[in-house]
C-alpha cells in the first residue's frame, strides 16, 4: 500500500507539476506570440510612417516648386507691365521734347537743356525697353503663349509709337492713351489667367 500510495502521490505530484509547467509554458508561448505581434505592429507602423513622410516630402516639394514657379510668373508679369508703362511714359515725354526742340534756335541754353532732357528720356526708353524684352524672354520660358503674344504685341506698338514720337508727330495724346489701354488689355487678361486671378 505504501508503494501504491507513493505511486499515487508521484502521479498527483507529476500531474500537478505537469499542469503547472504546461500552464507556465502556455503563458510563455502567449507572451512570446504577443511580443512577436507587437514587433510586427511596430515594424508596420514604422514602414507606414516612413511611407507617409516620403509622400509628405514629395507633396511638399511639388507644392514648393509650384509656388516658386507661380512667384516667377508673377514677377515676370509685373516686370512686363512696369517696363511697358515706363516705355509709354518715355514716348510721351520724348514727343514733348522733340516738339520743344523745334521751338528753340540752335545754340540757345533752352535748346541744349531740352536736348539733354531728350537724351535722358532716350536712356530711360532704352533701359525700360531692354528690361521689357528681357522679361519677355523670361515669359517665353515660364509663361503661357497668351502672355508672350500679348507682350510681343505691346512691344510692336510701343516701337511704332516711339518712331512717331521721335518725329514729334503725336498730337492726340488722348487717342494714344485709349490705344494704350486697348493694347494693354490682352496682356492684363493673359496675366490674370496665368496667375489664376479672377476678374470678378
Given the helix and strand composition, which structural class is it? mainly alpha
Q: Give the number of DSSP strands.
A: 0
Question: How much helicity do the residues have?
Answer: over 70%
Number of contiguous helices: 4
From the N-terminal CA to the C-terminal CA, the straight-line distance is 109 Å
**Residue fraction in strands:** under 5%
Shape: rod-shaped
In the predicted model, the low-confidence regions spanning at least 5 consecutive residues are none
Order of helices and strands: HHHH
Average of the residue pLDDT scores: 81
Rg over CA atoms, rounded to whole Å, is: 42 Å
Main beta-sheet strand count, sense and barrel state: none
